Amino acid sequence: MVATDGYRLGFSQITDIKSTQLFKLIIPVRALSELAKIIAETESADGEQLAVLVANQLNQVEFKIGSIEFTTRTIEGEYPGWQKIIPSAFSTKVKIQKAELVKQLRIASIFARDAGNIVKLNLKEDQLTIFANTSQVGSNEIKTEAKIEGPGGEIAFNFRYLLEALSAIEGEDVLFEMGESLTPARLKSTEPKDPSFHIIMPVRLQS
């Protein structure tokens, strides 16, 4: 499953499925949000399976879980070539505790809200520094230890995109990967069994 809005991209994969055919479908996000609520409400049912039924014309899909059936129309057309925006390699990789990173970003967000929600990350010598400033509130700088592999560097993001991606990543630690300051970065779990990841476009800072 892939979703993108032009500024960020989320990828998730479920391997424990039973299917004899390959389908490529574009499904409205509102429909999937409703499906997620239905699944959450039926999680207490032991061993409940989700069935996905696709119409022959690929214009409609039905989800069945227990006695609940949910049907939605699909979106016609071709999905954007999302693979092209993912860098083939990342020169810098940072392992950091997720809860600590979330805490730092929330503190920095107080100063970033009046400055376009922009925070700057500086990666250098096993240390992650988060900067945020606004003319009305002032500036903020938070430093924390991090395991850094590679040359490091500086990169800036909309803090909301980082926090939303982190909220969807499971596990205690996260892996942040980047190349140049203006190339997409990647956030993912350090768990080898979790193939999901988030690509976030950086922001160009004024010199």
Task: Reconstruct the topology from this structure.
Elements: E1 2-4, E2 8-11, H1 29-41, E3 50-54, E4 60-65, E5 68-73, E6 92-97, H2 98-112, E7 118-124, E8 127-134, E9 138-145, E10 147-149, E11 153-158, H3 159-167, E12 173-178, E13 185-189, E14 197-200
Antiparallel strand pairs: 1-2, 2-14, 3-4, 4-5, 6-10, 6-12, 7-8, 7-11, 8-9, 12-13, 13-14
Helix pairs in contact: 2-3
Explain this structure to me?
The chain has 207 residues and is of the alpha+beta class. The protein has 2 domains: 25-78; 84-200, DNA Polymerase III, subunit A, domain 2 (DNA Polymerase III, Chain A, domain 2), CATH 3.10.150.10. It has 3 helices and 14 strands. A 7-stranded antiparallel β-sheet has the order 1-2-14-13-12-6-10. A 4-stranded antiparallel β-sheet has the order 9-8-7-11. Helix 2 packs antiparallel against helix 3 (159-167). The chain is elongated, with a radius of gyration of 20 Å. The model has no long low-confidence stretch (mean pLDDT 90).
Gross CATH architecture of the largest domain = Roll
Radius of gyration: 20 Å
Summed over residues and divided by their number, the pLDDT gives a mean of 90
Please mark out the parts with pLDDT under 50 across 5 or more consecutive residues, or reply none.
Answer: none
Strand order in the largest sheet: 1-2-14-13-12-6-10
Number of strands: 14
Q: Approximately how much helix is present in the residues?
A: 10-25%
Helix tally?
3
Shape: elongated
